[in-house]
Amino acid sequence: MPAENDIHCLRLTRTEGVGPITCRRLLERHRSPEAALAALSAMARSGGKTTAPRIPSVAEAEREFERTEKLGGRLIFINNPDYPPLLAQLDDAPPVIAVLGDVALLAKTAVAIVGGRNASAAGLRMAETLAEDLARSVTIVSGLARGIDGVAHTAALRTGRTVAAIAGGLDVAYPTENTNLQRVIAERGAVITEATPGTQPQARHFPRRNRLIAGLSLGVVVIEAARRSGSLITTRIAQDLGREVFAVPGSPLDPRTRGGNDLLREGAVLTETAQDVLDNLSGFGALFPFGPKRRGLSEPPPCDFDDPPYLDAASNLSQARERVVSLLGPTPTKVDDLMRRCQLSPAVVIAVLLELELSGLVETLPGNRFALLMDAASQSHQTEQNV
Amino acid sequence: MPAENDIHCLRLTRTEGVGPITCRRLLERHRSPEAALAALSAMARSGGKTTAPRIPSVAEAEREFERTEKLGGRLIFINNPDYPPLLAQLDDAPPVIAVLGDVALLAKTAVAIVGGRNASAAGLRMAETLAEDLARSVTIVSGLARGIDGVAHTAALRTGRTVAAIAGGLDVAYPTENTNLQRVIAERGAVITEATPGTQPQARHFPRRNRLIAGLSLGVVVIEAARRSGSLITTRIAQDLGREVFAVPGSPLDPRTRGGNDLLREGAVLTETAQDVLDNLSGFGALFPFGPKRRGLSEPPPCDFDDPPYLDAASNLSQARERVVSLLGPTPTKVDDLMRRCQLSPAVVIAVLLELELSGLVETLPGNRFALLMDAASQSHQTEQNV
Is the minimum CB–CB distance between B366 and chain A shorter than 8 Å? Predict the structure, then answer.
């Protein structure tokens, strides 16, 4: 059962017309959320409104708590010690966030990786490399979108941990192709949203998600952002917050890299490797007393989730196939990586890959790399616009 | 007949062991080149040298004058009013330069465009666009090498004028594939060198050529320079001279753009268009009282220079494949561009692309564009060095 205080806090938060700044001010000015709610009604009346703002009932608030808990999630209010400290620095920090997964992860040093949904193979490759390398030192935050976001989360899961900020409710999988990824991130990292359960993400929700991404992170790395893309909104917020902005350069001939190049012109840190990011994280040294340079990339942070144990050699091939497929994506993966990750014997992996290739599910690429053929997904990469 | 003064000046310049700085000092200290030559012998003796430096004879100097004039060229000494004013600012300005073409052009505002010889199609396309646009306002200086240099000269000829700084003698065509281009530049622009007629360009001559390029130019634009490439030597000289350095950004996955990205990190002007260059030319406003913006882009002069002919259609496919791969990079390139660049018949290009795609080296993108999957290509590119 949630505390009475939290119930009222949620009612205040969910009252129509009460934005994050108003909510925070009301809570600061009044002794309790209940007092703030009472004041709210009075204020609205004295402000000349004919109807008082509709404040959700105690039962409605309880229902939101119940639904969130049923999903395995948790509502965290801004005055709670578990509220992400960097996010709390925002003037318009969300008064409440819904979290599925490891709440403690939200307090750890994080870097966001954002970029276009219709990214090029080169962009996706950069996202993969940067996320994989950075995740050894920091948490990777992204927006669970197709393209750069999805690849960044996936790569981060290989070497470290990741947080997905989403626009819809915790129980809403979006985009559908990342349904499995969203589930895995909730299990091994954290999924965070401002939306109530059941909320279907709409265009107007994405700026809030972008604010979460920037707010949670010490820095934002932009890979392939077209001009006027959603990724640039995230970096604007980061800049306003005094967080570092990193941009991967690209050819002026590709419109997908123009936004990033503009950022470089404005002073963003030119980023080619994870070290470029770690060397320039303002505040990173303060949080990690040895400083980013001395920490380097060699020392992976302690990780409290275990990879699943080796499958029994006698395990049937279909189980192995499932595992290999889940580890593969459209981005080419080296067979060594695959073997290390799937914890199957090399012979089994080779056999499975051959089988997958013969059935047209996997393509073999030079350098002993393999990619899952996701026809529908790859087509939509090219035609869709960034959020 | 050259003036007696110039004969002695040339003898001093061509004396073994007399570098540009020594030469200049000797000329400043003594009343005449003849007096400087006399002092040189005396100084060498008193310096304890058993043999005096070998000073070329009057006849030898006269022969160099004759050979240069026979070529249609001219020797210009540093104290001559026709000596390029920006080049004269160098502490180690060459005491004499040999020029074929329009000497007056060397006094006009110039911008250098430099880059790798094994450039990608995207890089060549950038060189072409920038040179064509910039040449409407300024003279384009480059080094007549394969790749970026050649394309920059050729494109500049379409809309304006260009100066080629070369490492060998005026009568030596290098590289052979640019023989025709060298001739056209001498006719419509200027070719400049420090070397005597007949000098075959060797590796040790190229730093001098690079110094000419930087010295003649108010700014240097770098397109696709690998780390430790000759183009970066040119930019170092430009930086030391206080000239502006411009760099075109590129994907970190392509080693050919790393040098340029490094320059951006160090503060080079991020360059996507000619306007980026014109807006940042220090001293440009002073030389052109109306300022770069108001000068704008005027009418291009007529140009009858032709691109080199198509390769014989019978050329074998492996050669064609090599050429197509070298032109591709992670940045998507239009097939039209590719065809134009590689000088192979469309049928051959299509066949090669299909072959490359099937072998997983190239990905096909919407809009008839192709990109190299960098893992596959990295071996060939990474091992090659730019001059």
Answer: yes
pLDDT in tens, A291-340: 333 233 333 333 333 333 333 333 466 777 777 776 676 666 777 777 76
* β-bridge partners, B333: B370
Backbone angles phi, psi at A239, to 5 degrees: -60, -45
For residues A275 and A269, the answer to whether their CB atoms sit within 8 Å is no
Quick check: ipTM above 0.85? no
Chain A residues with CB inside 8 Å of B363's CB? Answer: 121
pTM above 0.90, yes or no: no
Contact with chain B for residue A266, Cβ under 8 A: no
Q: Are B251 and A252 inside 8 Å of each other by CB?
A: no
Q: Which DSSP string corresponds to A271-297? A: -SSHHHHHTT-TTHHHHSTTHHHHHTT
